[in-house]
Write a structure and sequence with these properties.
The chain is mainly β and 189 residues long. It contains two helices and 17 strands. β15 and β16 form a beta hairpin.
Length: 189
């Protein structure tokens, strides 16, 4: 089967939630809240690419998806557990082009065009700068720039500043990385 406009995927390791960790050989559950987006699986194995797709992603590659793709919801009308709009059938999901941000091909990570990933290096107390409570990541070390950012001279290891409150956290290969739109980058340090 080859969907006309969407990627057919399944959650990596067939787990919709990444809410366990092993401690001393014992598997512990770190969260039982199915509506907590922080524990939904963000990695998906590509089972089929869209018939209309002409890009680098192929069957078997891994893509990093939005937190709502595999998340369960509780219906406000019936109070029952349900899957979101991406659910196709048990174990498989259809995702739109806007629902993924990075892909892994041949062991290497690539940011989708329009996005940059980086690790946080500086936090600003927003009370001082913005007059609101909390802290905001304001500078990141670029780990995975899109081709568009490379064309503008931004490479891995560069420090860039971005507008506040735009970070979106991913845990990738055990490291906390932030995804943001290229248009949110304000300057290269």
């Amino acid at each position: 089967m080859k969907p006309p406009y969407q990627f057919l995927v399944r959650p990596l390791n067939d787990k919709r939630y990444d809410n366990t960790m092993s401690v001393g050989g014992i598997e512990l559950i770190t969260s039982v809240d199915l509506e907590d987006h922080r524990f939904t699986t963000r990695e998906a194995e590509v089972l089929a690419t869209p018939a209309t797709y002409n890009g680098p992603i192929e069957v078997g590659d891994t893509i990093f998806v939005h937190h709502n793709v595999f998340k369960y919801y509780f219906s406000m009308k019936h109070g029952t557990q349900e899957s979101g709009k991406s659910f196709f059938r048990p174990g498989t999901f259809l995702i739109d082009d806007e629902q993924y941000f990075m892909y892994r091909k041949d062991g290497k990570l690539f940011a989708k065009e329009g996005f940059t990933f980086g690790r946080g290096v500086m936090t600003v107390d927003s009370d001082t700068v913005f007059g609101s409570q909390g802290e905001h990541q304001m500078m990141v070390e670029v780990t995975h720039p899109s081709q568009g950012m490379r064309d503008l001279g931004v490479s891995e290891g560069d420090l860039v500043c971005h507008v506040p409150k735009v970070r979106y956290a991913f845990r990738i290969d055990g490291e906390l990385l932030y995804r943001f739109y290229n248009s949110h980058i304000t300057l290269k340090v």
